């Protein structure tokens, strides 16, 4: 499998039950991942702080930090359990501009975007990126079915419902395909190891790591055991953000966040 991960953002001005009663609005950002070969889906939901003024004047998150995107891609990679060959952005999600004559990489370890020469080798856990569009994502408001749906629920219930939908989809669509591909990968690793040992026989020197192993080891998210590798998803809680998703730590210290959307 030549695994490719497509990323997309859905942004909404919405009201949960309590927001509706209090006349407040908040931004919801849903970060979506779709692995093309298997059909696997993954998501993260970010809930912004409430805003009591005119929704037209509400400050919006229009860019997502590379560290947040990298953490999400890492989760997707662990769910897939196979090397990701490419990350495709279907919108302008981050504040990053590709350089002419350069290849853009998303570093899962460093949590940032990198530019490398076309003949330069990628580092560990660095995934090549491409862009299907340079257009930024827009925030929907007004008459939208999903926005209307939010008024009868809260962030916890919404995230749980979406988790169940994605879990059922992954079980039916992605699980068997990924299990077969992982079996093939495991068999290839075994054959590579056996061939290396046969080649070096009873040499008293340390047997060098086969090239195939070296290639796989550059994708750390494939080798580590992780609950998402089973593709049975999990009950993830929503995350808060104020200015940007991923900014939770600083704002929590300053006391700017709170679960008010119940």
Distance between the termini: 43 Å
Overall SS class: alpha/beta
Q: Would you report the number of β strands? A: 9
Measured as a percent range, the helix fraction is: 25-40%
**What is the beta-strand fraction?**
15-25%
Gyration radius, in Å: 21 Å
Sketch the topology as an H/E string, one letter per element.
EHEEHEEEEEHHHHEH
Principal-axes shape call: elongated
Low-confidence stretches: 243-262
Largest sheet: 9 strands, mixed
> What is the average of the pLDDT values?
82
Number of helices: 7
Give structural notes.
Strands 1, 2, 3, 4, 5, 6, 7, 8 and 9 form a 9-stranded mixed beta sheet that branches. The protein has about 260 residues and is α/β, with parallel strands linked by helices. A hairpin with a 4-residue loop joins strand 5 and strand 6. It has 7 helices and 9 strands; from the N terminus they run E-H-E-E-H-E-E-E-E-E-H-H-H-H-E-H.
Structural topology:
Elements: E1 3-14, H1 17-22, E2 26-35, E3 41-48, H2 66-80, E4 84-89, E5 102-107, E6 112-117, E7 126-131, E8 139-140, H3 145-150, H4 155-200, H5 211-217, H6 220-223, E9 239-241, H7 248-254
Parallel strand pairs: 1-4, 1-8, 3-9, 4-7
Antiparallel strand pairs: 1-2, 2-3, 5-6, 5-7
């Amino acid at each position: 499998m030549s695994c490719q991960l497509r990323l997309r953002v859905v942004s909404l001005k919405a009201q949960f039950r309590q927001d509706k009663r209090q006349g407040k609005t908040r931004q919801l950002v849903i970060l979506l991942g779709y692995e093309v070969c298997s059909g696997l889906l993954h998501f993260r939901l970010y809930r912004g702080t409430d805003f009591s003024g005119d929704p037209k004047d509400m400050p919006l998150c229009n860019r997502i930090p590379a560290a947040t995107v990298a953490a999400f891609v890492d989760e997707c990679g662990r769910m897939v359990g196979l090397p990701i060959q490419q990350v495709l952005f279907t919108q302008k999600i981050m504040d990053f501009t590709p350089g002419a004559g350069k290849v853009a990489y998303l570093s899962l370890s460093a949590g940032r975007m990198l530019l490398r020469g076309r003949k330069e080798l990628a580092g560990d856990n660095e995934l090549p990126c491409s862009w299907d569009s340079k257009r930024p994502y827009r925030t929907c408001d007004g008459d939208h079915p999903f926005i209307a749906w939010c008024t009868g629920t809260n962030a916890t219930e919404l995230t749980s419902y979406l988790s169940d939908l994605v879990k059922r989809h992954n079980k039916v669509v992605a699980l068997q395909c990924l299990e077969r591909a992982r079996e093939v990968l495991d068999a290839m690793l075994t054959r590579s190891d056996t061939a290396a040992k046969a080649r070096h026989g009873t040499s008293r020197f340390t047997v060098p790591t086969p090239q195939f192993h070296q290639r796989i080891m550059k994708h750390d998210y494939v080798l580590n055991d992780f609950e998402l590798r089973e593709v049975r998803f999990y009950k993830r809680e929503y995350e808060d953000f104020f200015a940007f998703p991923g900014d939770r730590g600083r704002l929590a210290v300053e006391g700017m966040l709170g679960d008010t959307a119940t």
